Amino acid sequence: MKYSIGVDMGGTNTDLGLVTENGNIVQRRNLPTNVYTQFEPYIKEMMKVVDEMLEAQRAIDGQAVHLEGIGVGAPNGNFYTGCVDNAPNLTMKGVLDFGKEIHKWKDVPVVLSNDANAAAYGEYVYGGARGMKHFIMFTLGTGVGSGIVIDGRLVHGSTGAAGELGHAILYQHGRKCTCGREGCLETYTSARGIVQTYCELKGCEVTPDITSKMIGELAHQGDPVALKTWATVGDQLGLAMANAVTFSAPEAIFLMGGPAQVGEPLLKPLREAFDKYLLNIFQGSCTIRMSELKANEVAILGAAALLKMK
Questions:
Q1: Range(s) for CATH 3.30.420.40 in the chain?
Q2: Most C-beta atoms within 10 A of its C-beta, which of 120, 130, 197, 245?
Q3: What is the structure's pLDDT at 46?
């Protein structure tokens, strides 16, 4: 059996998994990301963890593991260069060349892209987008990411950074975004944006104990402010999705991430807004669907799936 390694590099932790050809994660490990300020010690520890997984699986299989390669999903990941370019939420600064450093330890293919692109390709290889040639993935979390597949290929653009729909401007002179601009979609439909909308509607201060998860629970209890919050977010996200359809005509738009788990309080107004804003020539051609991958597996599977990219 052939295996691949999927690496999900986050600002706090890095999760790794040994993945079979059909998308089963048979070994999992993690290491802290934020304790490293230098890249080489981080990669050295990562390769130690990879060897631990390979050895554990060798003991199960009774033979050496055939490793096809290592896929990495990371913030500011550039598919063309194999580097993480100056990610602001990492304690390791500058350009981090994963391909170069990993090849010092393993002579296997290394493929890297940003985390949202990896999630999209994971859906394509292992999830609900299997068999589709055209779709978009939106990931809701601390930020809003997206990955675009056209003609069966993940879109990277001329710079390797295509697919930043979370930074499409929704409102001129809107909320200040971490990217330095104002009014980005992310400032309204990320977990932080949802909390800000709730507090604006309720007339309260934003505090750490107010979370998008809590607002979701309140919505299911019938809280009118929480319901209005999700209706507002659904309208904003529906508009962004309808706009996205105009440039790639996808068969489906997939949605994943913590805030999306609230279900109908978000999905009902989202679908209504999407239908309202969608250009008439695309009516009926695109559906909004939830990711079919498990939330705790999608990042690793997505990273591993990058190795299957054509």
A1: 2-120+297-308, 132-290
A2: 120
A3: 98
Are 70 and 103 in contact by the 8 Å Cβ rule? The answer is: no
Which CATH entry fits the domain spanning 132-290: 3.30.420.40, 3.60.10.10, 3.20.20.70, 3.40.50.300?
Answer: 3.30.420.40
pLDDT in tens, 272-299: 999 999 999 999 999 999 999 998 999 9
Q: pLDDT tens, 158-180?
A: 998 899 999 999 999 999 998 89
What is the reported pLDDT for 178?
Answer: 87
Cβ pair 302, 256 in contact under 8 A:
no
Q: Which residues of 85-121 are buried (b: 16+ CB within 10 A; e: fewer)?
A: bebeebebeeebbbeebbeeebeebbbbbbbbbbbbb
| Residue position matching structure tokens 């909004």 | 288
100: its two tokens = 């170069």
> Which strand (E) or helix (H) includes residue 144?
strand 144-150
Total residue length of the chain: 310
Stated pTM of the model: 0.92
Instruction: Determine the pLDDT at residue 89.
Output: 81
Q: What angle do CA 297, 107, 50 make, to 5 degrees?
A: 35
DSSP secondary structure letters along 13-53:
EEEEEEEETTS-EEEEEEEESTT-SSHHHHHHHHHHHHHHH
Low-confidence ranges of the chain (pLDDT < 70): 310
